[in-house]
Amino acid sequence: MKIERVGFVFLLAAAILWLTPMAFVVLTALRAQRDVIAGGVFSLEGELRLSNFVTAWRIGHFGNLFSNSTLLILLKVPLGILISSLAAYALATMRFRLNWLVFAALLLGLAIPVHVTLLPLALLLRDLGMNDHLASLIPPYTALGLPFQTLVLVGFFRIIPKELFEAADLDGCPEWTKYWRVAMPLARPAWITLAIIDIVGTWNELLVALVLIGAEKWQTVPLGLLQFQGQFASRYTIVMAAILIAVAPVIAVYIAFQKYLSTEMSAGALKE
Amino acid sequence: MRRPKETATAWLFLSPALFIYGLFLLYPMLASLAISFTNWDGISPRWEFTGLDNYRHIFFDDPQSLRAVKNNVVWTLVTVTVPAGWGLILATLLNSSMRGRTLFRAIFYCPSVLPLVAVALIWAWMYNPQFGIVNVTLRALGLEDWTHAWLSEFETAFPATLVTAIWQGTGFPMLLYLAGLQGIPRQQYEAAELDGAGWFRRFIHITLPWLKETHIVVLSLAAMQSLRAFDLIYAMTYGGPGRSTHVLSTWMYFNLFQYRQAGLGSAIAWVIVIISLAVTIPYIRMVARRRHG
């Protein structure tokens, strides 16, 4: 059909436009600074090289940034899923007074922007002796992810057939066992999706880290990348290499787990 | 049937979440509300209760704050409508068994997963006055007069950040719309086609109404997101040139942590909260309805 061909051409044009920034980042990152300056971004003079990546890794202290961000993710993501799934299990399967109040608080939490917590949070963490340390990011990150993760999981725990829990009751299983052996395995696609969203979100987070982390030792990837905006801004080829180093892990996670993210489930999860 | 044991267990399961939520979200939020009624600087032990002065200051006295408010209104309008509309168009085109469908989807969605600092640096390079693609392309087309130092001129800096936000923000609505479109029964279209309805009428009378829930999600989330826009402005223009590109979140950050205006900064934060609550209500109502429905 004709209209479909028009649609395809339109999509192709839009896709090229969308890819242009990324394409030029890659192209610039592979060339020598003097070639880019002499010949311009469109030229291909000079040879392509990988040395910019080595330089960017070294001057950006990416070894340190990567280990900090990775450690943060390893601690924060499982903790967040554990805490929110426990709460979600109670909300979805147990009857208790004030259920509605907890639910309302979580809904409110969806609308609370992190900004409003920053100053008291910084003061609180200082009083707790956690200031300027990687660990200080874990409680606020967990708190911020909590409302969304809990609400999504409540939705998934609710659709588990009651009979499964009743069968476990007949076997005399305690709530903990029902949560761990019945609910969590059945809701696996849901919490895996949440974990992936959380990994990418934690890797990318800037504002809270900017406020709470000062020491270079504990900087996360976005903070480290920010330095390329100031200090090294005129070393274009190095900056572009640094960008690619910083985004490579998120792209890799996205590609590796695409089946979890591109199914209807992920959009459904975001709706809940 | 409410057994006491079950109630105790329920609270046990809820306790870690409630503890974290209360201490690191609810408490700081209320503390900043209290600070917003004072003239505290954020460090010294001295402060006075000033009532609603900070709020009046934002909207009536201070041109800088008002500028941030106005910028944020523009930012919200543009970053809600353009990516949503654009995402809907792309999703509609992609909702077929076309070749390269997955690849197209990945291309448009890709910018949404990148760290915003990286997005800012990518576009700073695009906008580079000497070597950036935008100016190089304009020069190559003989449009020398149209070139600008995009991020450092007063007229162009803010629109330039908006273009970046659109590039970054289109993928997510597109994905949500794609999921929404897949929920529309094919028979609807087939029946309309038999009645002789063209693609445009099918789009208006079937597609748009069926996507009602998706519209709510897309628009609410985008509006919420637009109030939280910090990273792009901070990393691209740092609020400059002058203080012309501040939005509420960056202006809040500068007041809280650089100008030592904790009272005013907290009031700006609460303006963000109130607007954020207002735009999220349709979304929250939908989530709440699903729970009972």
What is the top-level CATH class of chain A?
Answer: Mainly Alpha
**CATH classification class of chain B:** Mainly Alpha
Radius of gyration of chain B, CA atoms, in whole angstroms: 24 Å
The name of the CATH topology of chain A is MetI-like fold
Secondary-structure-based class of chain B equals mainly alpha
In total, the number of strands of chain A is 0
SSE order of chain B in H/E notation?
HHHHHHHHHHHHHH
Helix content class of chain B: over 70%
**Which geometry of chain B do the CA atoms define?**
flat
Biggest interface: chains and residue counts? A-B, 99 and 97 residues
The unreliable regions of chain B are none
Mean pLDDT of chain A: 90
Shape of chain A: globular
Q: In the CATH scheme, what's the topology name of chain B?
A: MetI-like fold
Give a short account of the largest sheet of chain B: none
Oligomer: heterodimer
The total of helices of chain A stands at 15
CATH homologous superfamily assignment of chain B: MetI-like
Topology (elements, then pairings):
The complex is a heterodimer of chains A (272) and B (293).
Chain A: H1 2-29, H2 33-39, H3 51-59, H4 62-93, H5 99-111, H6 118-127, H7 138-158, H8 162-170, H9 175-186, H10 188-204, H11 207-212, H12 221-230, H13 236-256, H14 258-261, H15 264-271
Helix pairs in contact in A: 1-13, 3-13, 4-7, 4-10, 5-7, 7-10, 12-13
Chain B: H1 4-35, H2 53-61, H3 63-94, H4 101-113, H5 116-126, H6 133-140, H7 157-169, H8 171-182, H9 186-194, H10 199-210, H11 212-227, H12 231-236, H13 248-257, H14 262-292
Helix pairs in contact in B: 2-3, 2-14, 3-7, 3-8, 3-11, 4-8, 8-11, 11-14, 13-14
